[in-house]
Design a protein that fits this description.
Heme Oxygenase, Chain A, 2 domains, single chain, mainly alpha
């Protein structure tokens, strides 16, 4: 008998259409609950069965994406220097780079349009600090040390007011944003769900390192445009500090990540280059899909030509499986 609370997992391979939306909304709601610290007595009787069902669905979700983005990662080199050069070119050539949404936000968006954009972005933010903490587990020493330095920056170097996560929360509070899965476009939800899946499943640990690294590399330009738009709308400096900070700090973070994390990981095992590259492109692809959807909702033209069209059902590793768990 199928448990109705997890019936949505059958749509894991859907990357477009109403079933895609249903899966992303349900997975987002589940991720909100699953990552909260709990006590043993707060666990449900069949929590482990449910978690197994959803974990299998997450893997199918990621594998469907890997198939879709295959044309974008066909030329990933495995030699260290060549790979780093390929990775760094993603800043110019990757999906979503140079999207016209961001200059528009900087120069034309009104307060309500900026508020809508921020609602989507806050919902898609999976928490860089927590993703980093999960990704670094058992990584090699050089990579782990750089991840630790990056994490310490995310944590405000021990000062609560300087922590990056609460900075974004202060901006959300200023605009009175309360994102719930049903208020957010599924493309944005899928971005956050992908980042969590990559960090939680150790088979995708190197994918996660690539995805986190490409965020550091590509975020400064977009953050600068958003900060410019917030300044134009006269948002107080302390409220917009999250974007002002990331427009500058992530440039340094990116250089150090590529040198201290990606380079040694690939040098240790060239097979990791493909996983790192796939994770990076996956993250950019989701960003590009989100930006494209945002522009549609906001009435801005110029679609991203780098977005691969997605059929309503992607081929997954287990396309016909409907996961079963016993009823409690």
């Amino acid at each position: 008998m199928r448990n109705s609370s997890t019936g949505w997992t059958r749509w894991a391979g859907e990357l477009a259409g109403p079933r895609f939306s249903e899966f992303q909304i349900a997975l987002t709601a589940h991720n909100t609950r699953r990552l909260e610290p709990r006590l043993p007595e707060e666990a449900g009787q069949n929590d482990l069965e449910i978690e197994h069902t959803i974990a299998c669905a997450e893997v199918d979700f990621i594998e469907a994406q890997r198939k879709i983005i295959a044309p974008l990662v066909a030329d990933i080199p495995s030699k260290t220097d060549e790979f780093i050069a390929w990775f760094e070119r993603l800043k110019q050539t990757g999906p979503g780079q140079g999207d016209p949404l961001f200059p528009w936000l900087a120069t034309e968006a009104d307060t309500e349009q900026m508020k809508w954009f921020l609602l989507q972005e806050v919902a898609g933010e999976a928490g860089f600090d927590d993703l980093l903490a999960m990704t670094q587990v058992k990584m090699s020493v050089q990579a782990k040390l750089e991840m630790a330095r990056n994490f310490w920056d995310e944590m405000g170097r021990g000062r609560e007011k300087a922590m990056h996560g609460p900075m974004l929360e202060r901006l959300a509070s200023y605009f009175d944003l309360a994102p719930t899965p049903d208020k957010v476009v599924p493309e944005s939800l899928a971005l956050g769900n992908t980042m969590i899946a990559l960090a939680r499943h150790r088979r995708y640990a190197f994918h996660s390192a690539g995805a986190l690294g490409v965020i550091e590399m590509t975020a400064p330009t977009r953050a600068g445009f958003v900060d410019k738009g917030l300044r134009r709308l006269k948002i107080p400096p302390k409220k917009r500090h999250y974007f002002a900070l990331h427009a500058v700090l992530d440039i340094k973070h990116s250089e150090e990540w590529n040198r201290e994390v990606l380079r040694p990981l690939v040098a240790e095992d060239p097979r990791r280059a493909r996983a790192i590259g796939e994770g990076a492109v996956m993250r950019l692809w989701h960003g590009a899909r989100s930006f494209d959807r945002y522009r549609q909702e906001l009435g801005i033209s110029n679609s991203d030509k780098n977005i691969i069209p997605v059929p309503h059902r992607a081929n997954t590793a287990r396309p016909t499986v409907e996961y079963q768990i016993s009823a409690a």
